[in-house]
Every structure is written in structure tokens, then in C-alpha cells.
Amino acid sequence: MALVTVKELLDKAQKGAYAVGAFNCNNMEIVQAIVRAAEEEESPVIIQASQGAIKYAGLPFIVGLVKVAAENTKIPVALHLDHGTSFNQIVQCIRSGFTSVMYDGSKHALEENIATTKLVVEIAKAVGVSTEAELGKIGGTEDDITVSEKDALLTDPEEARYFVEQTNVDSLAVAIGTAHGQYKFEPELDFVRLDKIRKIVDVPIVLHGSSGVPSDDLVKAISLGVCKVNIDTNIREAFVRGVQKVVKEKPEEIDPRKILGPARDEMTAIIREKIRIFGSSGKA
Ligand code: G3H
Ligand code: 13P
Ligand code: ZN
Predict the structure, then answer these.
(1) Domain extents in the chain
(2) Ligand 1 centroid vs 271 CA: distance in angstroms?
(3) Given this model, what pLDDT does residue 209 score?
(4) Ligand 2 center to 281 CA (angstroms)
């Protein structure tokens, strides 16, 4: 079927109290693994591309791969720009067929973040594209910051209410203690903060940096209003695991299909596992 919007998927998820997985792609094998996993779980799915992915594969390839994947399956698939920071690139993505875009203005001061988010929301809504914005700073696990510094970066609930009211954005990524990449220690999520945000913000909440978050915490976050869960690192780990296994067991192997095929299987397995945790199996 044709690509659907993220808003459509998240509105249903919010009503049904589950979350839709948003999985990052960079190449054909990853796109195939995401769609295959979603098909096997009969789950809706969001395929997202970062600016880095677009730089690596090229915008026409990302759009082409995801469109073909969507057209050849019965499950609903959305194509989303992850952490867009350039207004020009956001417009290019919309024009190329993305059905959802994230503007990440979290590095900017509140009013500047609001101003650009508002502009993105206005142009996206005009052509039926969904939007996501970020408030608070979701860093990387390698960021060397103290606990008090970390607390200052988390999303302020009252500010979140004001931000959504001002921008009219469709979904909001919040900082509640998760980080991008591989965690050195188990993350401590601020569920009290999430609950406060949920009570005064009615749009679907997005959780970034979710790969290293324990399953129970993911389930709890979803019960407190998270409707979109972003996963990239788990896919990277599975890809490398698959490749390394073949290279180690058959160092003489030179057929890329026999190296990338097992990597694709590893990725499919972990994506299926995540989809089950998110509660979206059978919701396609
Ligand atoms: O949020 C970050 C995603 O993992 C994308 O990472 O910018 O290296 O593609 P990337
Ligand atoms: P992970 O690094 O935890 O997979 O997070 C991915 C992400 O948030 C993409 O936006
Ligand atoms: Zn992210």
C-alpha cells in the first residue's frame, strides 16, 4: 500500500495504549528487515532516516527503497525524517515523499525552537505531512555530564505544554533520561516527569535513545503515554553480529549476499522482539 502518515499510526496507538516502533534505515537490507519483521508481527511500522542516512544513501535511494517496500506489503508503513535540523532539508524530504518530518531544535533556546518548529508544522500540515519536535536534550551515552547537569537537560513539563500549544506539533520527543547509542550503565528513566508531561500534553510522546532501555521500562513508558519508540543502535548491533559471525566462521566467503543475508536475519529478529514489547503486534 501507499505510505501512510506517522500521525495516523500514532493516533491509533494513543487510543489503543501501545507504541509504534520507529526503526532507522541506511540501506536496502535494513529496510527489508524492518518490513519483514513488521509483516511477521502484523504490525504498523515507521521507517526513519537520519541526516546521516540521507548523506550516506542519498535522498532518492532512501525514498525509493522505502516506497517500494511499502508498495509491496499490506502493512501500513510511514517514512519519517529523524532529527532534521535543516529547514531546507526538511522541505526537500517533504517534496521527495516523506510522510513525516522531525524538526530537532533542541539545541536552540526555547523561543527559537518554537519559531522554527511552528514554521515546519505550518508547511508540513499544508501538504498532509506529520510532524515531530524535540524539547529537552536527548544526548549520547558518551556525553560526559554530571547528574545535576543531566537533570537540567530533561524536558520541563510546563514548558512542554507551552511548546505544544504554541507550535501545534503532532508529536513531541521528550528527554526523560534516555540517551542515543550503547549505554555504559542501565539508564534511569524519570517516570514521574513523564507522567507529569502526559497529564498536561495531549499529543503522542516519542521516546528516543530506546535501544538500551530495559523491556520493563519500555512497557512502563508506553503505559505512561509513549506512542513512538525510536530504535537504531539495536539494528546496528544485529547487523554487525550477523556479518561478524559469517566472517569468523567462513573467512573465505566473498559473496556479499551470504554475508548480508544473515545480517538481515539478525536485524529482523531483534526488530520483531521490539515490536512485541511495544504491543503493536496484530495492530496492522
Ligand atoms: O538519533 C540518532 C540515530 O541513531 C541516527 O544516528 O545520525 O548516526 O544516523 P546517525
Ligand atoms: P538508539 O541509539 O537508542 O537506538 O536511539 C535511536 C534514536 O533515538 C533515533 O532517533
Ligand atoms: Zn533520536
Answers:
(1) 6-278
(2) 17
(3) 97
(4) 21
